Amino acid sequence: MIAEAQAAPYQPVLGDANCDSSVSAVDASLALRFSAGLVDYSDCLSLADVDCDVDIDTVDALSILRFVAGMPGKALCAPGNTVPADDPEAVISTQALVDPNGKTIGSLVGIAGEGSGPTAAASYYRSCWSEIAAKNIFGQKVAWLKHNQSFLYDGSRVMTMFTPFRTAGSMLGWDVDNLSTSGPYNYGTWGQSWSSARFKFSVPIIGTVQSYWVNAGVNAYGWGGCWAWT
């Protein structure tokens, strides 16, 4: 009796636009042809979005080529936009908070994290979150909005987007209002949801000195990755 070899299941690779388990100039060519409208969209092509901006364009094609050639440049889905798998927490953005007089009163910091674990033979579970936080000049968190999104994926498609939930809070002198959540929206190969709010800084008698509209969102991808954004 001759045993037949079983093909190993495909493991998605970021940049592998034709699902041949490798990243090459062929993948860059496919990304370029798609951006020019010369080829139709496919599930594999979702892996060509190497800068994780939910668009496949010439920037992705060039990034793949530079990656293949070993040239210096922006890494595929470089930190700053994405969070490494199972990294419990990472800073993804930061900007100064300035009052109407131009004085720096703190900073707005974007933080994100994710984790994963198999739930069934045909699908996997991942939970991702993003948080936007206002910190004072001493680095203390004084207002925050955190958005959580969980989903099931099978390696190429998002099977289920669970209802997202948010948490928010503030400390003396700060307030968080106008809370809202949008989504989840499932587009097959990827999904998206986000929360929005307003951070307000107030002082006695004068009232609100400054306010900041903020967002915290998560994009979920069928290959199991997340893009957390603020």
Helices and strands in order, then pairings?
Layout: H1 25-35, H2 58-69, E1 90-98, E2 104-118, E3 124-136, E4 141-153, E5 158-161, E6 165-170, E7 174-186, E8 190-203, E9 207-221, E10 226-229
Antiparallel strand pairs: 1-2, 2-3, 3-4, 4-5, 4-6, 7-8, 8-9, 9-10
Helix pairs in contact: 1-2
Please tell me about this protein's structure.
Residues about 1-5 and about 80-85 have low confidence and may be disordered. The termini are far apart. It is elongated and about 60 Å long. It is mainly β and about 230 residues long. About 10% of the residues lie in helices and about 45% in strands. It has helices at about 25-35, 60-70, and strands spanning about 90-100, 105-120, 125-135, 140-155, 160, 165-170, 175-185, 190-205, 205-220, 225-230. The chain has two domains: about 1-80, Dockerin domain (Type 1 dockerin domain), CATH 1.10.1330; about 90-230, no CATH class. The strands form two sheets. Strands 1, 2, 3, 4, 5 and 6 form a six-stranded antiparallel beta sheet that branches.
